[in-house]
Backbone:
């Protein structure tokens, strides 16, 4: 995780340089080459408060915008043209599916991931696949120790989205457990950004964003750019916050977790912390909880340990399981004849 955190900061530094007119690009003016669109840098309506970028319920709303909404957004962007991401696949996974899957798994709003893809490398506004390829295949810098030295195992938009969503969830969980992120960002605690601003985050989501992007960059980059694009995308999508009066959706069977309370939405839910990124599950004897709003689960046989619920998957669909998991057939608890394909820890 330390390597990935360093890489994420590295990715942000490149994005900031691009927006500021450094080696990655030029200051965004009409007609000039830039990773960003001119509209990205035109001020949105409302007052920017560097201490509160996005409220926690909206930041952690992983379900209001589904995969259909994400795909439609990529096909008809605010820039009045289609993004190349609408037809792009990495490792056999559509961009929209990667975003929606990571949003649900880590309880991060897909709008956050869309905004970060634009802030980092201007991918939403790109009509055609951009060059160099690292702008897409390592968009968030996950697995990179330098700009040109990256781990092939983390190549692909789908893996990069999974990584950045997991990183944001880790920051939120660090705050919930220990009061601050790995870099010391915390609600109601004043810290200094890389561009010399004193920031006192109003909430955990803002602190998590500064852990990811420790720059204000008002009018050009950093938290201002994230806020500015968020406002425009949210207005375009008519997104007013999570459905249900601002409550945060809890994790379901198969979702990432760090402790049992993360899985309280599942009857009898517990967090299997020995699985990659943690996995919400529940003990079972034959059937698993079902609510119609989440993927079906299967009561898998774990031998002497009994049965535990695992999310069903389709092995013919690449990427139908989270990173670190394989789609494999397992026996039902107490049976030697009934099997089902489920997401289980990879070998």
Residues:
């Amino acid at each position: 995780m330390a390597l990935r955190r360093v890489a994420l900061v590295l990715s942000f530094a490149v994005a900031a340089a691009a927006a500021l007119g450094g080696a990655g690009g030029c200051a965004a003016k009409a007609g000039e080459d830039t990773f960003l669109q001119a509209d990205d840098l035109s001020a949105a309506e409302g007052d920017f408060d560097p201490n509160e970028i996005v409220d926690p319920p909206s930041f952690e709303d992983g379900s209001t915008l589904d995969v259909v909404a994400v795909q439609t957004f990529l096909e008809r962007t605010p820039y009045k043209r289609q993004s190349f991401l609408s037809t792009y696949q990495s490792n056999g996974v559509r961009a929209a599916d990667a975003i929606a899957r990571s949003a649900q798994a880590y309880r991060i709003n897909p709008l956050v991931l869309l905004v970060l893809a634009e802030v980092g490398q201007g991918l939403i506004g790109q009509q055609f696949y951009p060059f160099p390829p690292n702008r897409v295949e390592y968009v968030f810098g996950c697995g990179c120790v330098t700009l040109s030295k990256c781990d092939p195992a983390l190549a692909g938009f789908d893996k990069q989205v999974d990584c950045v969503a997991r990183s944001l969830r880790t920051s939120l969980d660090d705050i919930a457990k220990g009061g601050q992120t790995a870099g010391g960002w915390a609600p109601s605690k004043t810290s200094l950004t890389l561009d010399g601003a004193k920031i006192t985050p109003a909430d955990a989501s803002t602190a998590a964003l500064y852990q990811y992007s420790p720059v204000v960059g008002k009018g050009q980059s950093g938290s201002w750019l994230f806020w500015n694009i968020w406002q425009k995308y949210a207005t375009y999508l008519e997104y007013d916050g999570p459905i249900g009066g601002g409550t945060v959706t809890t994790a379901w069977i198969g979702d990432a977790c760090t402790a049992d309370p993360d899985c309280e939405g599942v009857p009898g839910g517990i967090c299997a912390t020995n699985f990659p990124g943690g996995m919400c599950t529940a003990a079972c004897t034959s059937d698993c909880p079902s609510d119609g709003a989440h993927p079906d689960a299967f009561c898998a046989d774990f031998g002497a340990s009994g049965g535990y619920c695992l999310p069903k998957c389709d092995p013919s669909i690449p990427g139908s399981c989270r990173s670190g998991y394989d789609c494999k057939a397992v026996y039902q608890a107490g049976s030697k004849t009934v099997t089902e394909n489920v997401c289980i820890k990879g070998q």
Summary: Residues 1-32 have pLDDT under 50 and may be disordered. The first helix runs from residue 2 to 20. The two ends are 20 Å apart (CA to CA). Residues 59 and 202 are 13 Å apart (CA to CA).
